[in-house]
Design goal:
- There is one protein chain.
- By secondary structure, the protein is of the alpha/beta class.
- It contains 8 helices and 7 strands, in the order E-H-E-H-E-H-E-H-E-H-E-H-E-H-H.
- It has a 7-stranded parallel sheet, with helices on both faces.
- Strand 6, helix 6 and strand 7 form a beta-alpha-beta unit.
Length: 195
Amino acid sequence: MAQELRRIAVYCGSSGAVDAAYLEAARDVGKHLAEQGIAVVYGGGNVGLMGQVADAALDAGGEGIGVIPHKLKDLEVAHRGLSELLVVDSMHARKMVMASLSDAFVALPGGFGTLDEIFEATTWNQLGYHRKPAGLLNVKGYFDALLAFIQRASGDGFVRPVHAGLLVHADTPAGLLEALRGQEIPSLKQWIDNP
């Protein structure tokens, strides 16, 4: 059964000093989600890939919901033109609010924060705290090494085979959306039954 996706959390880099292909991919994601009637839930910034995703979604008539901690808002990186901007007390609160608002999670290229967020959402799937699909937009092979690492971790016994596919991936927004909609998330029982 296909997943219903009304809002997707998008995790991505806040740096604009990156290859133009990454910025273009961020715009493509924002535009594609808006055209599909899917709201973007993201970190609330106006910089880097984050700002590109939000601007493209809004320019295409979509909805952009930002969630930003006070500390970052006070540094004046908050996007001022969003459909909604929620200001929270901490990064932990930001992740919880974004997760509660979203039906799925997507990571675009980014750094430590992006990886932290997508892995936390994936871990919550693994442990049965939610059953929301998660995936990677693999722009220019950015996540190839990470995907190889996940297979290595599974082969070495640190990630159970039933969980090795918890992060779907594609190199286009349309392909990733299709993979998210079709993702089968193992139940906690499947995890227990497949040591």
